Amino acid sequence: MADVNKAAALCIQDKKLLVVKKKGMEELLSLGGKIEPGETEEECIIREVKEEARCEATHIKRFETFEGMTHDGKRTLRLACYFCELNGTPTINPEDQIEGHCWINRDYSKQGIKLAGMLELKIVPALVKKGLL
Questions:
Q1: CA atoms within a 13 Å half-sphere pointing along the CA-CB vector of 10
Q2: How do strand 16-22 and strand 28-34 relate by DSSP bridges?
Q3: Contacts from 42-45 at CB under 8 Å and sequence distance 24+?
Q4: pLDDT 10s per residue in the chain (133 long)?
Q5: CB atoms within 10 A of CB 3
């Protein structure tokens, strides 16, 4: 069992993935967060998308689960990834820790964009391999 269990919302439009910038972090993260006690992965996706993007997550569909380390390298992480569509336009929630949204394509690194470890090492390569980015 991982130290940290999270769910990630993979919102893809026109072969671009929505990522977020959390306050105090240089690397961008996937939309999503920790699964709360008694919460399903899908419920976590719905809650996190509402909190982080002020949108409704629709058409939620399981993709893959990845395991690795947290961005600080101190704990094991299990990340359940789900595709979803957004009802609404991502906007900043002043009550959340997210300070920005960005749509990235497969060439994000050439644009000077840095991603958190699991996103860069596992999720984006899996999406590229499937032709989604």
A1: 20
A2: antiparallel
A3: 42/7, 42/82, 44/6, 44/7, 45/7, 45/8, 45/9, 45/82, 45/84
A4: 789 999 999 999 999 999 999 999 999 999 999 999 999 999 999 999 999 999 999 999 999 999 988 877 888 999 999 999 999 999 998 888 999 999 999 999 999 999 998 999 999 999 999 999 9
A5: 11
Which residue reads 């699991």 in tokens? 118
What is d(CA 44, CA 108) in angstroms, rounded to the nearest whole number?
A: 27
For 65: left if phi > 0, alpha if psi spans -120 to 50, otherwise beta; the answer is beta
Say which residue the tokens 């690397």 belong to.
27
Tokens describing residue 36:
């709360």
Domains, the chain, ranges and CATH?
Answer: 4-129 (3.90.79.10)
Alpha-carbon Rg of the chain, whole angstroms? 14
Residue indicated by tokens 């590229």: 128
> Which residue do the tokens 């984006």 mark?
124
State the pTM of this model. Answer: 0.92
* Cβ contact 67:60 at 8 Å: no
| C-beta of residue 93 within 8 angstroms of C-beta of residue 51 | yes
